[in-house]
Design goal:
Blueprint: E1 3-6, H1 15-26, E2 31-34, E3 42-49, E4 52-59, E5 62-66, H2 68-73, E6 78-84, E7 89-93, E8 96-100, E9 105-109, E10 114-118, E11 122-130, H3 138-144, H4 154-168, H5 175-197, H6 207-222, H7 231-237, H8 242-250, H9 256-273, H10 279-285, H11 291-302, H12 306-313
Antiparallel strand pairs: 1-3, 2-5, 3-4, 4-11, 5-10, 6-9, 6-11, 7-8, 7-10
Helix pairs in contact: 4-5, 7-8, 9-10
């Protein structure tokens, strides 16, 4: 489903704060500094196809920074690919800067500080995938970020064209086709990365297995509220053996059950951080049937009880 958020109907004095909230809720928290004193204008369109989030940002000239403090606040482990549209841009990460002309691509990693700069009203399409999707080593991720990938080269031109069309037609695909296209996008990005890094393959992970694991992880995120979610139900939903599902997660150094619990705890932690519903209600919403069990595993994961975490976010509690 496509979501469109815009400052157009927001009072001029409140637009920048609203834009910060929009970007944080939809993408990741960022510090945003406009280049002019005029009322800020911004429009964000988002679509999701399987593991791929597509965000089209149109806004006035500004500079954005993702700092270590913001990363600690919301540690979404994503690898993003920016496709520069109208007007030039600049991306900086890991001690490198890339000047982007319209049509250029560049990778950046949300788990480390980066900045983006736009000297005039701009348009950029951002394609975000889970950080582990390409199976890259840390050293390769550092080599990859903030490097301009020009569309004049064959592979970059193919990838840029495919991604641009995918963004334009995202709402026309039924879910199962969208999921397949997202997997194709990951495979194409892997090919581009392999070419850029000068290797035959992008990392050691098997691309088919990595894509399937991402599908399953997306399925888990959509079914966290189901208390019966288990390796068995996951295997049945994907027409796989339970043994094979376990093997996919072993390749990531975890188990299916630990991954489910981790994602449930993360969802609860975010919800409790906003205040609002009681602890027991939040736990139940994300599939924990026993409040005492939820409290124990939450404390083990975060070093404090759910109630203490909630009180930090809501000092009036």
């Amino acid at each position: 489903m496509r979501h469109v958020l815009s400052t157009a109907s927001v009072p001029a004095g409140e637009r920048l704060d609203y834009w910060h909230e929009v970007i944080e809720r939809t993408c990741v928290p960022l510090h945003i500094t406009p280049d002019t004193d005029t009322p800020f204008r911004g429009r964000l369109t988002t679509d999701r196809l399987g593991c791929l989030q597509i965000s089209t940002v149109e806004a006035d000239a500004n500079r954005v920074r993702r700092t270590r403090g913001l990363i600690a606040k919301a540690d979404r482990a994503q690898l993003s690919v920016g496709l520069q549209g109208r007007s030039p841009g600049l991306v900086a990460q890991d001690g490198k800067e890339a000047f982007l002309n319209p049509g250029d691509l560049a990778f950046y990693d949300t788990t480390r500080p980066y900045s983006l700069g736009f000297a005039e009203h701009f348009r950029m399409q951002v394609f975000s995938i889970p950080r582990q999707a390409l199976g890259l080593r840390e050293a390769d991720l550092h080599r990859l970020t903030a490097l301009p990938l020009r569309p004049g080269t064959g592979t970059a031109a193919l990838v840029a064209s495919f991604l641009a069309r995918l963004a334009a037609e995202a709402t026309t695909y039924p879910p199962h086709i969208g999921d397949l296209l997202a997997r194709n996008a990951v495979d194409l990005l892997g090919t581009l990365v392999a070419e850029r890094l000068g290797r035959a393959t992008a990392g050691t992970a098997d691309s088919a297995g990595a894509a399937l694991r991402l599908r399953i992880q997306s399925f888990i995120d959509r079914h966290l509220a189901d208390p019966d979610l288990s390796p068995q139900t996951i295997a049945e939903a994907h027409h796989l053996s339970v043994r094979y599902v376990h093997r996919l997660f072993q390749d990531e150094g975890t188990t299916v059950s630990r991954w489910i619990q981790h994602r449930r705890l993360e969802a609860c932690r975010r919800e409790l951080g906003r205040g609002g519903p009681a602890v027991a209600a939040v736990a139940h919403r994300f599939g924990f049937t026993s409040p005492s069990h939820f409290s124990r595993v939450f404390r083990a994961a975060y070093g404090m009880s759910p109630r203490e975490w909630r009180a930090m976010a809501d000092p009036t509690e």
